[in-house]
Design a protein that fits this description.
Spore Coat Polysaccharide Biosynthesis Protein SpsA, Chain A, three-stranded parallel beta sheet, three-stranded mixed beta sheet, 10 strands
Length: about 220
């Protein structure tokens, strides 16, 4: 059975109001996400979960299946796992899986490549990861107004001497639904990584992030063509 796609698209973003309908190279972010999911030709259905009537209408216009969130998931603090678990209560999907797509630079090429990695593994889950710009082990904070290592002074070393660590960037998630329903989370499953190229792993939290994403996409197109 082909997997389903779930696109969480809240209209209640506090850091970037109406983010999901903001224009990305002249097209709404939501439309870009739906288009790339459809172009990949992997999914049997592309669902868009939102509490926002305008977003749900746009989802249908671009070929997605709109799903109204229940009242308890209408806050922008609702986690993707909770949204997906709610959707799976009403959707029959016996094999895999769920794909969360909050990242507008996620393209069909990445979806296909990630799904290939997932199918070829014996894992229950796949999550996309990307590298940090700077080693997070060397984070500092100011609990009393003075700079101190956040973790431990032993980690204040040259980057080359620290263990490489990654962050789950949330741009692609595949998971076997029966495992996800049982565990209730993406963590806690046997998960394999998909390494997202840095230029396509940008969190769109503020309007300036959107401008950077547009620049990187244009630069990539120039290199390719």
């Amino acid at each position: 059975m082909r997997p389903i796609c779930i696109i969480p698209a809240s209209g209640a973003s506090t850091r970037f109001p109406r983010k999901n309908i903001a224009l990305f190279n002249g097209k709404p972010l939501l439309a870009y996400a739906i288009d790339e999911a459809l172009i990949s030709n992997i999914f049997r259905a592309v669902y868009v979960s939102s509490e926002d009537a305008e977003i749900l209408e746009m989802a249908q216009d671009y070929g997605g299946i709109p799903l109204l969130r229940p009242s308890e998931l209408k806050s922008d603090r609702a986690q993707i796992r909770h949204v997906c678990l709610d959707i799976l209560k009403s959707i029959v999907c016996k094999e895999f899986g769920v794909l969360g797509i909050p990242n507008p630079l996620r393209i069909a090429e990445d979806i296909i490549a990630a799904y290939t990695v997932f199918k070829q593994s014996d894992a229950e889950c796949l999550m996309s990861v990307s590298s940090y710009a700077h080693p997070p082990q060397r984070a500092v904070w100011m609990p009393d107004g003075y700079i101190e290592p956040y973790f431990n002074i032993k980690y204040m070393l040259r980057a080359q001497k620290l263990d490489p660590v990654w962050r789950c960037d949330g741009s692609i998630i595949f998971v076997k639904t029966y495992t996800f329903k049982r565990v209730g989370d993406f963590y806690g499953t046997q998960a394999v990584p998909y390494f997202t190229p840095k230029e396509r792993s940008i969190d769109i939290d503020y309007p300036i992030d959107l401008k950077l994403a547009e620049f990187l996409k244009e630069t990539r197109n120039e290199i390719l063509y």
